[in-house]
Each structure stands twice: as structure tokens, then as C-alpha cells.
Task: inverse folding
């Protein structure tokens, strides 16, 4: 059996690791197609900036279910607290640079490969350009024209780059991709900067600018003007039941969460307990909503979920808070109205949230950084493999426009509504079906389930 994984970031590497670790009797060829040298790093964990840190304590970042402290132990065995004193909090929690987690994943995968000589493992450092049915299997065409056969394929491609608001197209001084470190590094320390978005990526950008001694002033704007919440120092334990008689509307689910938070607060327990429980039960809570309610939840509540679910590393939170306190950073809740190139900079007009119709605020900036989040709505056009399959009717975006539409087992759905028996999605691009596939626990468990499904395949027909 030949298994191919397209994408070698966290999800792709986790899928490969679980294929090997959970199925010691596997006899197969296993190929990961990933241009990056380090498997397991992907976009999230390949950032070279030391100020970009994991936003969950290392003691909760293990990918080995039976050893929840594995990553923390791995770091301490390598002397991280001494090598990077800023990684350690006063209570001992470690928040290392994100690149270290990428190296951790690569080491775990390499160990599994070495322990399973019966599996012919390859890392092909190339970009997959197309995927097409070939008999009962698949043919993958790589850049340069080479082809690879596969009996089963797992799509583990990364998030698409942020969609650039149309009004910024062609305007000089706009950094369309916040992970373009060269473009970000070209922003002068004295430049007036506008950041579009106020989520985790925006906080990373603020941290990077401040680490370079930026002093030109930073304005961040988003629809709600919400920054990620700081992490509690209290112990967090999942609390709450959202699966028994699950709610069928977004409004009812919100009320249920608020009641649970109120009960926890009355007992002196942090709201994070409730969010952690909802994260774990997200599949059931999301699955009982119809698509109308799912879209309503995304439209009205997603911003609030994101800032509570995806919190900053304490070091980045401290940087952002200090920048706000000093006046170096201001955060505005509002809507962009117009952008134009002007002498001496970029003219921006926006309307503050709650302002009277026609009442606008004018800004002049020298640089704009786009931190609007992954371009979910353009996901099927973001990668040549996805684009080609979508054009041929082989896959489609999910109705909530979060990623690729898959069934409950992670198999890709065709335009006809039936699922390919041997084509899967691992990782965040299956979020529309699973509900929560952005944090580490889910981007480990879901690929593990995909690995089990791949091993269980009896190679049949793609027809």
C-alpha cells in the first residue's frame, strides 16, 4: 500500500507519526510531500522570530496522550530554562519559542520512522501541483513534472494566507502576508503602522515590531476591537457539559455557556474551565447546529470565541499590554471605509463601532500589515491541488466557508455529495465538519483518527 500525505506541517506530521506509532504492523510506503526541510513545523512552528512563542504552556503541549508532560520534559532535558530564561514563568510554566515545537515534532516523527523499517518512508521536498484519480488510486504530480502513485492520500495542506481587503490592492507599503518576515522587517522603526486585525497574529506582529525597537506608533483595528485574553495563573480543568441535550441554536448555546461561566465564577473557578470543556466537546456542540445556525454563530460569536479560546503567550501579552499603556499601541473597534495612496503616506478612513452614520475617523500611516486571519473563503483556490480538484468536481468548500467539506470520518466530499473512499483531510481545513481544529489537541487527535481510517482501508475503486 502506498500512502501519501500532502503537507508536512503539524497535522501532516502528526498523521504520519500516528500511522507508525499506533499501527506497528503496518507494511506500506509512506511519503510526505512538503517543501520545508523540517517536518512538523509548517507555518505555525517555523517562524524564526524568538519573540513568537507557543501560547499554551509546554506542560499541555504533548502529542503523546499517555505522557501529557512529554514536551515539557523534552525542553527541560535540553536545558531550555537556562538557554532561554524568558521562557519560564514565575510558577515554572514554560512558553518557549514556537520553532522549538516544530523541532520537537520532527524529532518524534524521525524516531518513529527509525523504529519502523518495514515502512518505506520518504520526505519529498517539493510542492504538489495536482492530484487526479488513477484507477483505484491516485496520481500526484509534483512541481517539475515528476509523478507519484498513491493508494490513499491525506490532504494536510496549511491554512491559506490572509485575504487582503480589496481596498488595499496595489497600495504601496502594504504587507499582505504577516508571515513575510522580510517585508515585516523592512518597516522602518519610525513608521506609523496600521494593523488590520487584533487576533493572535496581530499580537505577534506587535511583538516583532517592538522587539526591533519600533517607536513610530501602531494602530490596530478590527470589527470588535478585541484582543486575545491573557492567560489565568489558576489551574485550568475542563468544566461543563455541552453534549447532553445539546443546543440547536447559536443563541441557546451562548446562553448555556454564559450560565456555566457564571456558576464557575461563583465558585471562584476561572472561565477558562468552561472554554476548555467546550473545546473538548466542540464536535458535538457544533454538529447539532444546522448550517444556518453555524453561519449565525460564526457571524456573531466567532470573534468572542477566538479571543477566549486562543490566548496570548504571557510574554506577548505583556508586550502588547505595555505598548497600550505607553500609548505606542492603540486598538480601535471599527470598520475600514476607504484607503488611498497619498503624499507622505497612506490615507485611511474608518468608522468606529457605534459611531453615527457618516461619522468617520481619518488616519495617515506609512505601512499596513494584514492580519485578518486565514483566507478560509478562498481556500479551494489557495493551493494548486485543491484548485484542480475543485475545478474537476472532486471537492468543494464547506457551507460555512471554513475549509474543505468532508464527512464525519474526514473523507473528502465530491460535488455529487458522496465521499471519496481514500482521500482524506487532516487538520484545520476540515474544521467546517469538526467544529474545532485549530488548537493543538484537535490537530493531534483528528489526524490520529485519519491515520486509523487509512490503515483500515481495503484498496478499492475511486469510481
Result:
Amino acid at each position: 500500500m502506498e500512502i501519501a500525505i500532502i503537507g508536512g506541517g503539524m497535522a501532516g506530521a502528526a498523521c504520519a507519526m500516528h500511522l507508525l506509532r499506533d499501527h506497528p504492523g503496518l507494511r506500506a510506503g509512506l511519503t510526505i510531500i512538503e517543501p520545508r526541510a523540517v517536518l512538523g513545523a509548517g507555518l505555525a512552528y517555523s517562524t524564526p522570530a524568538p519573540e513568537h512563542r507557543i501560547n499554551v504552556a509546554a506542560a499541555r503541549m504533548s502529542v503523546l496522550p499517555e505522557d501529557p508532560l512529554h514536551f515539557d520534559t523534552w525542553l527541560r532535558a535540553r536545558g531550555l530554562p537556562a538557554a532561554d530564561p524568558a521562557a519560564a514563568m514565575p510558577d515554572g510554566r514554560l512558553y518557549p519559542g514556537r520553532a522549538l515545537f516544530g523541532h520537537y515534532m520532527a524529532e518524534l516523527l524521525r524516531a518513529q520512522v527509525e523504529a519502523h523499517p518495514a515502512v518505506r518512508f520518504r520526505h519529498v521536498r517539493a510542492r504538489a501541483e495536482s492530484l487526479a484519480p488513477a484507477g483505484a488510486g491516485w496520481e500526484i504530480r509534483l512541481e517539475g513534472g515528476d509523478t507519484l502513485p498513491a493508494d490513499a492520500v491525506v490532504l494536510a495542506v496549511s491554512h491559506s494566507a490572509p485575504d487582503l481587503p480589496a481596498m488595499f490592492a496595489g497600495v504601496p507599503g502594504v504587507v499582505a502576508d504577516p508571515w513575510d518576515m522580510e517585508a515585516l522587517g523592512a518597516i522602518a522603526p519610525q513608521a506609523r503602522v496600521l494593523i488590520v486585525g487584533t487576533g493572535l497574529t496581530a499580537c505577534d506582529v506587535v511583538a516583532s515590531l517592538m522587539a526591533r525597537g519600533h517607536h513610530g506608533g501602531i494602530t490596530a483595528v478590527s470589527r470588535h476591537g478585541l484582543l486575545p485574553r491573557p492567560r489565568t495563573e489558576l489551574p485550568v480543568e475542563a468544566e461543563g457539559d455541552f453534549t447532553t441535550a445539546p443546543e440547536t441554536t447559536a443563541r441557546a448555546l451562548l446562553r448555556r455557556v454564559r450560565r456555566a461561566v457564571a456558576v464557575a465564577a461563583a465558585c471562584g473557578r476561572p472561565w477558562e474551565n468552561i472554554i476548555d470543556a467546550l473545546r473538548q466537546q466542540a464536535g458535538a456542540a457544533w454538529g447539532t447546529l444546522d448550517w444556518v445556525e453555524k453561519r449565525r454563530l460564526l457571524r456573531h460569536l466567532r470573534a468572542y470565541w477566538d479571543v477566549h479560546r486562543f490566548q496570548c503567550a504571557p510574554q506577548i501579552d505583556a508586550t502588547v499590554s505595555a505598548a497600550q499603556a505607553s500609548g505606542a499601541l492603540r486598538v480601535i473597534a471599527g470598520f475600514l471605509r476607504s484607503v488611498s495612496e497619498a503624499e507622505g503616506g497612506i490615507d485611511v478612513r474608518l468608522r468606529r463601532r457605534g459611531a453615527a452614520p457618516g461619522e468617520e475617523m481619518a488616519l495617515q500611516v506609512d505601512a499596513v500589515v494584514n492580519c485578518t486571519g486565514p483566507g478560509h473563503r478562498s481556500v479551494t483556490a489557495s493551493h494548486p491541488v485543491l484548485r484542480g480538484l475543485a475545478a474537476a468536481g472532486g471537492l468543494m468548500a464547506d457551507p460555512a466557508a471554513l475549509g474543505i467539506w468532508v464527512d464525519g470520518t474526514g473523507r473528502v466530499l465530491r460535488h455529487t455529495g458522496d465521499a471519496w473512499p481514500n482521500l482524506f483531510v487532516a487538520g484545520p481545513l476540515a474544521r467546517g465538519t469538526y467544529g474545532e481544529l485549530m488548537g493543538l489537541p484537535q490537530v493531534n487527535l483528528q489526524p490520529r483518527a485519519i491515520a486509523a481510517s487509512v490503515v483500515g482501508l481495503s484498496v478499492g475503486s475511486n469510481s
